[in-house]
Amino acid sequence: MYTSEPRYWRNLSEPVLTVLTGPSAVGKGTVVQHAKNSADRMWLSVSATTRDPRPGEVDGVHYRFVTDAEFDDLIDAGKMLEYAVVHGHHRYGTPSDPVEQALADGLAPLLEIDLDGARQVREHAPNARFVFMAPPSWDELVRRLTGRGTETPEQIARRLETARTELAAQDEFDHVIVNTDVSAAAAELVDLMGLSSDTPR
User: Fold this and answer.
1) Torsion over CA of 54, 186, 20 and 138, rounded to 10 degrees?
2) Is 95 labelled a binding residue?
3) Helix, strand or coil for residue 68?
4) Any binding-site annotation on 19?
5) What is the CATH number of domain 18-193?
6) CA–CA dist 45, 63 (Å, integer)
7) What is the pLDDT of residues 132-150, one digit of tens each?
8) 134 marked among binding-site residues
9) Sheet of strand 48-49, all strands in order from the earlier edge strand to the far edge
10) What's the whole-model pTM score?
11) Are the beta carbons of 63 and 48 closer than 8 angstroms?
12) 23 marked as part of a ligand binding site
């Protein structure tokens, strides 16, 4: 169990960890990049993974590439806020030490993860800020997902089924941002994180 919970306590004079989730194709990544461009103190968490780097990927930028043994050590030491096995083989997760360091440096950490990961973080850091990003409507989510043209019909069907489950869980979150407009959603996220003016709080 992760034991450094006091670091995440909601103190108005200090930044807190923010966890963002939402269904596939809702636009989380695009909104986060817009938000980061207007909030220098926002710190984006980088996931650790046991898979090998792909061409062009940089350790510490795209992912933190670790061995299976190193991943096991992080789990055993209680230093993973959340983790999961993807495609039945490689593991991905959020190490707690970089998040702790960001908070110590006065930065506002943001984790963009899936619903299961957010629930794991809540177990370890219940006083973090949990934000759900929703589409303006189900039909719009379907349009965005099918419009990407990157998945087969079977993959789309699976993603939509997962999306139904995720949307049903939005009441678990502290805040819901409806992504009707990217700029507006990014501004709302920045505001929720207390970074609107990007000055020390």
Assistant:
1) -100
2) no
3) helix
4) no
5) 3.40.50.300
6) 9
7) 999 999 999 999 888 877 7
8) no
9) 64-65, 48-49, 90-95, 80-86
10) 0.86
11) yes
12) yes
